[in-house]
Amino acid sequence: MHNTRARSNLVSGVLHGAAIAVVLLVTGVKPPAVAPREHITFLTPADVLKYDVAPEREHAGGGGGDRSPLPASAGNLPKRALRQFVAPMVKALNENPVLTMEPTIVANPELAIPVLNIAQIGVPNGPVGPPSNGQGKNGGIGNGDGGGVGDGRGPGAGPGDGGGVASARAGLKGALTQPVLLSKSDPEYSEEARKAKVQGSVMIRAEIDARGQIQNISIARGLGMGLDESAAEAVKKWRFRPGTVNGRPVVTSALIEVSFRLL
Fold first, then answer.
1. DSSP per residue over 112-159, as a string?
2. Where are the alpha helices (DSSP H) in the chain?
């Protein structure tokens, strides 16, 4: 009697599962094939925060490079220190140094700088691509000169000279708040990418305007097969509470990672 009931339950379960499969097949309903998530790095109300070792100076900054044919690649600013012993490099020129020291730029060690979701140093607003020290000269990273990071001159970072960290825009000192994501739309997996079982992340550069809307979208690193367009179209619909400087809404640069994963 017990065996008969167990066999009956087993048959019932198999038939029930088969019925569900038939319904899915006939109706064309597909189980979710994508588990999108996002990681947002706010690059500040300018490309780099406006701070300085000596706040009274208006032209802080620095730059460098090693005459690479490629532009300096994206990454986090190096550690800030009041003295520089080793200039920063994305690609080391000497693979086996006699003495290993941490590369730095000359700036206030207590400086608060946004951190990108990238495990290397570089130019915060550089391209996401092959590691490169950039087209500048005399060490460092960027298109500048002098052992720093950026397009300026000197051991700091930014368009100015003489150390410190400067932005490409002036007048942004003060109390800063980052944008807050209020609503978002998830991207759809393209049929082409689904069939090819493509997975990975699309990196999007964009600006969040003073109204909290996305503008100036570009693909920093793509996957192809329609996923780049899908990610951009979804991000375009996102809404934020805008970032502010001293309580005033401002445009904020952002690097957004949208991940596609097949379930």
1. -----S-SSBSBTTS-SSS----B-BSBSEESSBSSSEEEEEEESBEE
2. 2-27, 191-196, 227-235
Can you give the pLDDT at residue 74?
84
Q: Which residue positions in the chain have pLDDT lower than 70?
A: 1-38, 41-59, 93-100, 110-117, 167-176, 246
22 exposure class (CB count in 10 Å sphere: 0-12, 13-18, 19+): exposed
- Among 222, 239, 227, which Cα is nearest to 194's? 227
CATH for the 31-43+174-260 domain, from 3.30.2420.10, 3.30.200.20, 3.40.50.11540, 3.30.390.10: 3.30.2420.10
CB-CB neighbours of 113 under 10 Å: 18
The pLDDT score that the predictor gives to residue 111 is 64
The residues pairing with 145 across neighbouring beta strands, listed in sequence order, are 137, 153
Helix ranges (H only) for 136-250 are 191-196, 227-235
- Residue 91 has a pLDDT of 78
Please report the pLDDT score of residue 216 as a whole number.
93
**Euclidean distance between CA atoms 190 and 34, whole angstroms:** 10
Q: What is the dihedral of CA 241, 128, 227, 242, to 10 degrees?
A: 10
The C-alpha atoms of residue 62 and residue 197 are separated, in whole angstroms, by: 45
Q: Give ∠ CA 207-210-214 in degrees, rounded to 5.
A: 35
Question: Which pLDDT belongs to residue 223?
Answer: 92
